Amino acid sequence: NAGVTQTPKFQVLKTGQSMTLQCAQDMNHEYMSWYRQDPGMGLRLIHYSVGAGITDQGEVPNGYNVSRSTTEDFPLRLLSAAPSQTSVYFCASIPPGAMNTEAFFGQGTRLTVV
Amino acid sequence: AQSVAQPEDQVNVAEGNPLTVKCTYSVSGNPYLFWYVQYPNRGLQFLLKYITGDNLVKGSYGFEAEFNKSQTSFHLKKPSALVSDSALYFCAVRDISGGSYIPTFGRGTSLIVHP
């Protein structure tokens, strides 16, 4: 049981490049979400999913796409990277049917856009 | 709508002294409240949560938190701080009546424990 796994841990992109941040969980969690963490801003929700085939936008969705083809995977795509997307990205999952349950976080992906 | 505020960006305390990290929340119904800790270059780890019942909740590493409904607060406390407690702490809220499983996080409070 690996929990929530994010890859890569570090990435440097040039402006305009695209890439996909991977997130996988092996706990059969329905709810998955992506956050970005910036100094002084805390965690801001980018996109989330309540199950396979269902996604929705969070607080800061612009410049990012997501899909949820399986319960296990929830990749985050940067279409055309910008320096403003330099941040630490966290993926989280929540067990099904349990609003009183805490979220499980991955170790994060540190992205730098130059 | 649900929101949470952590009014202090940084809290400084001497080792051995009690610590408090503040959190206030806003929900339209009843809240589920959580505290997480983040050590450098790591993901968030769950510390404790308030769901219902006793207003004083005990969690990992000797931390506890007090739920105060009249003041809409959920402050994190520890009787005796350790240098190893130095980390970033996040409060989070989920509105029971809102039906959303996605919690809202505060901005985080950096706790620095001095030797």
Characterise the protein shown here.
The complex is a heterodimer of chains A (114) and B (115). In chain A, 0% of the residues lie in helices and 51% in strands. Chain A contains no helices and eleven strands. Chain A has strands at residues 4-7, 10-13, 19-25, 31-38, 42-51, 54-57, 64-66, 76-78, 87-94, 104-105, 109-113. The mean pLDDT of chain B is 93. Chain B has strands at residues 3-5, 10-14, 19-21, 24-26, 31-38, 44-50, 56-58, 64-68, 73-78, 87-95, 104-105, 109-114. In chain B, strands 2, 5, 6, 10, 11 and 12 form a six-stranded mixed β-sheet that branches.
List the SSEs and their pairings.
The complex is a heterodimer of chains A (114) and B (115).
Chain A (H helix, E strand, L loop, with lengths): L3 E4 L2 E4 L5 E7 L5 E8 L3 E10 L2 E4 L6 E3 L9 E3 L8 E8 L9 E2 L3 E5 L1
Parallel strand pairs in A: 2-11
Antiparallel strand pairs in A: 1-3, 3-8, 4-5, 4-9, 5-6, 7-8, 9-10, 9-11
Chain B lengths: L2 E3 L4 E5 L4 E3 L2 E3 L4 E8 L5 E7 L5 E3 L5 E5 L4 E6 L8 E9 L8 E2 L3 E6 L1
Parallel strand pairs in B: 2-12
Antiparallel strand pairs in B: 1-4, 3-9, 5-6, 5-10, 7-8, 8-9, 10-11, 10-12
Task: Describe the structure concisely.
The complex is a heterodimer of chains A (114) and B (115). With 114 residues, chain A is mostly beta strands. Chain A has strands spanning 4-7, 10-13, 19-25, 31-38, 42-51, 54-57, 64-66, 76-78, 87-94, 104-105, 109-113.
Shape, principal axes of CA atoms of chain B: globular
End-to-end distance of chain A, in Å?
Answer: 36 Å
Q: Hey, roughly how much beta strand do the residues of chain B contain?
A: over 45%
Rg estimate of chain B, integer Å: 14 Å
Counting helices, strands and paired strands, the structural category of chain A is mainly beta
What is the end-to-end distance of chain B? 41 Å
* Helix and strand sequence of chain B: EEEEEEEEEEEE
- Oligomer class: heterodimer
Which percent band covers the strand fraction of chain A?
Answer: over 45%
Strand tally of chain B: 12
Structural class of chain B: mainly beta
Sketch the topology of chain A as an H/E string, one letter per element: EEEEEEEEEEE
DSSP helix fraction of chain B: under 10%
Largest sheet of chain B: 6 strands, mixed
Can you count the beta strands of chain A? 11
Which runs of chain A of at least 5 residues are low in confidence (pLDDT < 50)? Answer: none
How many strands, which pairing sense, and closed or not: the largest β-sheet of chain A?
A: 7 strands, mixed
How many helix segments of chain B? 0
